[in-house]
Here is the input.
Amino acid sequence: MPSKIQIPIFCESDVLATVQKCQSLLIQIEMPIDEATLALTAVSEVSRNILNHATSGEVILSIVKEDSLSGLSVVAQDSGPGISDIEKSMADGYSTGKGLGLGLSVAKESMDEFEIESVLGQGTIVRMRKWVP
Amino acid sequence: MFVPILKLGFCLIVTAQSDLTDTEWKQLQFTLLEKVASTHARNVILDMTGVNILDSFAGRMINDIAQMIHLGGAETIIVGIQPEVAWTLVQLGLRLKNVITLLDLEEGIELASRQGSANSLALFTKKANNAF
Amino acid sequence: MKNLPQSAISNPTSEEIEAYRIFWVPYEAHYDEIQLDVLAEAKKIPQFEKLISSIPPQMMVEQNKINKALMRGAILDGKWDDFINHQRSEGVKYAKMGLAFPLWFELLTSFRRSLNKHIIIDYKNNSTNLNLALEGMNRFVDVSMAIIGDAYLNTKEEIISTQQRSILELSTPVLQFRDRLLIIPIIGMVDTHRARQLTENLLNKVRDNRAKVVVMDITGVATVDSKVANHIIQTVEAASLMGATVILTGISPTIAQTLVILGAEMRGAITVGDLQGGIEVAEKLLGLKVIGPTTAERPVSAEKA
Here is the structure.
């Protein structure tokens, strides 16, 4: 099992594949079930966001180790239209897309570290991490 | 992924054999509701043994499907929810109102046959039990 | 390994190397004598005595040869990594044997005393070299002890954390009481870590044993914080989504307060005063007949007894 996986997102089955690969990584680092389901929710949100807003992009999943901690790192990037108002997009329950995802605010809450960068017309990159408690 | 819908008396049995994509969930919702209406089903058993991962979208879809079936006058029995899936549903705050959850398909069919919707099967299990 | 400034050890300064070399000359010359001195001292300590007598003399000679070669390689040829790895494995070995750390300083003292004697005799006409040799010896002993000590402590920590894990696993047993009935007695402090273990254990056991009813007895738990209470509530809900009914028994007044303040509805859970009552309810749910006195009759039967 490689500790770094790069998945291009073009269609819905890619979103599913991302979540499935993420689960196998989480099992590998022995993430407890409650934290693992939170991380999976976040990963599905950000990969679905790529599909809904940018039509294509990629998600990079990897295992990170720092001191005695191990964790999951997720980088989701696309070259879509970008987010005009990051603060607004992070507000609870905000969603411009098809309205069924729970949005970025959920992803942020589910992870330990969350970072978002977006340039209008160039794309968005989301970096998240979750540590095994 | 094709999701088969089996009819057994007034009971429909749906088996999701693996994780489904968003579109597949939507398709399932559509065909299932159609089928409930056209067959006058009283029970729908949704077997989720094969579903290992549920994200917020799929969670909402399941909840929606159950509520719609309820409005359509039938009862949803969800069976085979895996530990991870159960935990996700709880964390998403989806309480699955108007849904009966049971351990596995066997229990689901037993309940449906007790309620008389899977009559032919009840007959079958009875015969099988007598044989032993 | 990461706590140790290993580069400083494996890359000694030129002054240090100089000191090591000067100290090495008398050490190498009297190596066997010194070993014998240390061995004699070691035999006076019961723990070592046992250890030494368990090693065949031939093997001891071999080990000494290897030690000598490694030290020589490090000091004269700069092969520090081999030496460090060897010392490290020694530390791991001692920790696994359960040798007490302070005992090593006893040995070290006798080693220093023996070596000191030879250094002073050999360099008695050269005070510069005498100083350097003593300095080299002290530095060398410190470095060795730092490596061995570090490996020793790391190993001990590993042993402790493995033990902690197994204690934790033991602390939340899930017992199959009857066909399709599980009992989980929870005793003692429940922190988030243990609550997690509980969730995982319970949900997996429900699936694997096809459990229909789970009796969770928390008589032995005095208090829980809101986070743990929430976790337990979610576990109960998840179990009921899987098709199992959870019966909670023995909720203490404090925990009852915590749960009410949290606004927990305990959806899908039945609460019963004590474990016996809980099992009776469980058996009824499973369609079993309870034979013998039920909870309601208990005071009467107690009087009779």
